[in-house]
Description:
Helix content is 4%, strand content 42%. The protein has helices at residues 113-116, 154-159; strands at residues 3-8, 12-14, 21-24, 33-36, 47-57, 60-67, 74-79, 85-86, 90-91, 95-100, 106-111, 121-124, 163-170, 173-176, 179-180, 184-186, 192-195, 206-209, 222-225, 228-231, 237-243, 250-255. β10 (95-100) and β11 form a beta hairpin. The strands form four sheets. Strands 3, 4, 5, 6, 10, 11 and 12 form a seven-stranded antiparallel sheet that branches. It folds into two domains: 3-124, no CATH class; 155-255, Cupredoxins -  blue copper proteins (Immunoglobulin-like, Sandwich). By secondary structure, the protein is mainly β.
Amino acid sequence: MADSLRLKGAKHVIKHTGDELNLRRPKRGGDVHRIPTWWALKKTVTYANAAIFDVNSSIGALALVVPCNIEGTDISIIHNGDGTFMFPHVRGVDRVAVMSADLSTFYVEYQFAKISGGPTLKRTVNVLPAAAPAAAPVPTPEPEPTPEPEGPTYAERVQAATYSVAVTVNNGNYELDGVANEALVGSVGDSFYFDLTDASLSGHPLRIYNDTAKTLQISVGVESDADGLLFQPPITGTFSYQCLNHANMGGTITVS
């Protein structure tokens, strides 16, 4: 933040480089403001003509008051952005003041050669406000994780089964599509669906085991509901579909 300009007379601003210095227009019209002379030692208040610049700085809003006359004033002003000023060219101005925006607080006076007798003299009356602390950065929220795409539903997996057979019971045997204790053959990745909706299956729940002796019931790769059982073998080997309640009622599933 920085700005510079040149004021000629009371209202002519040229060579303006930024937007931190803005000439304040008198509310009652005319070209100049009437301000109390802060430098006068008399008990009675006297007034002088002045140009006032509104200053946007890193320490807040300020005002730069430049006592001036319409004919003789010619001053270059540089603002560093923090309430500090430089005046590389001055003619027709003895001093300027840095004040609060409402002119109620007098902070700094710059006295030029006619008063200082040499280089510009800076006189601090009140300490300028401190700069506001920088706002803490707003953390960037973590992006919501992309949900994993859902796989096919159980009904869709049943519909896409590699082998689908209707199971019935006849003479103490399971029949698959009418074939008693049929041996099934497939590969890893294939799926076998057993349709268990026939009434003859009452009392004959079908399960998958690791062998015909029903040594271990298989649960991995097995899904079921009231209408059927879907089996997708996880590994190669020979499995067996068997009745939970009766021995030697079922057949083999060979997976290569």
